[in-house]
Amino acid sequence: MPKRRPLLRAAAELLNAANGLRPLGREGYVTIPVFAFGWPTSEMSPLYMVGSMLDAARRGLRGDFRGVRGRIALLLTAVAWALLWLIHRRNVASQPYFEDPLRAALGADYQAISEKAQSDRRRRRIGVPPNDVIRRRYVTKLDTVQYGPHGAVNMADIWRRADLPRDGKAPVLLQVPGGAWSIGMRRPQAYPLLSHLADHGWVCVSIDYRVSPRHTWPDHIVDVKRALAWIKERIGEYGGDPDFVAITGGSAGGHLSSLVALTADDPQFQPGFEDADTSVVAAVPIYGRYDWVSARGSGRKEFIAFLQKFVTKTPIVRHRQVYVDASPLYRVRADAPPFFILHGQDDSIIPVQEGREFADALRDVSTAPVVYAEIPHAQHAFDFYYGSPRAHYTAQAVEEFLSWVAATTRRRAD
């Protein structure tokens, strides 16, 4: 029979809960395991708590909590439960941090204006992890398409309600997955947002693209722009409006979506399709990387080293312009489309300062609204899980922002 170590197990549970409450490391490569363990705990703490309680009941019946060490183990486990409950309560209470920045930037009546562009106000929240069952509710086999010439890495899922008319003019969102420019899998990223918008009458397009180290920058951004060009040309066949296409993405996808929005029709990122329209009406980057140049700050040296070795495969000291051109921070412009930038304060992968600096730089020059929402206690990828309050609030806030853009665009046209 294996030796029981209730005290060690309880200490591990407490450490995990503490890391979910606040990341235990923010410098260097330790941030990777800190994120890997803290991310699901910080967003799905009720599941951890229920699982731990059931396991504690089982272990209690077999006598794991007898004696002094056992009672200490039970006490530590109870403290872990308290921390998990605190995490959940903070998540539930975070909605104002999504709504208040929208109100401050767009006006107190932004929700009323947004509703004018929302034809369907259904609210369906699904408390299960993202999986193929959810995707297949909105994506049929005929709605998985190839948008570019590179086979399996140029595939896209088109999310739409089955009853959405194919001759309609639904607003369109392009979702760019994250993954450190080296994964880029469209499944199962952004499912809470995509299903929410599809449920409300949107057409959403989630893509794969070429990634490193097999491929080299700027292949990544070229593919995203090619997908955007495909949408402008073909999305009408699926009931989407090619004249209203917004873009979003998280992490590396936040970087790519921002860069797309700030480099409309830039020929260096559109080889072979230079004349294609790659403009967007709005951008919603979430916990993105916006600066590929500076080596100052938490994790910056490691990040630049990663880019040089795996992504650009060229040293910054000899090819600095490559990094400048790839940095949304250096591409801000007066005619940028409206932006809604979201970042978590406890992001251990991409520090929150990255989002602050980009939002400030964009506000300084852009004539369009720039909304910046900084979410307290939120880790990287806080919008990933179904059942997470922050994922739900993110989907609602993004819909309201994009609907506001649609309503105000329509009002100006009239």
Task: Kindly describe this structure.
The chain is α/β, with parallel strands linked by helices and 414 residues long. It has 2 domains: 6-92, no CATH class; 95-413, Alpha/Beta hydrolase fold, catalytic domain (Rossmann fold). The chain contains 14 helices and 8 strands. The protein has an 8-stranded mixed β-sheet with strand order 1-2-4-3-5-6-7-8, sandwiched between helices. The radius of gyration is 22 Å and the shape is globular. Residues 123-130 have low confidence and may be disordered.
Tell me the helix content. Answer: 40-55%
Computed over alpha carbons, the radius of gyration is 22 Å
Largest sheet: 8 strands, mixed
| Proportion of strand residues | 5-15%
Quickly give the CATH architecture of the largest domain.
3-Layer(aba) Sandwich
Largest sheet strand order: 1-2-4-3-5-6-7-8
Q: How many runs of DSSP E, i.e. beta strands?
A: 8
The CATH superfamily of the largest domain is identified as: Alpha/Beta hydrolase fold, catalytic domain
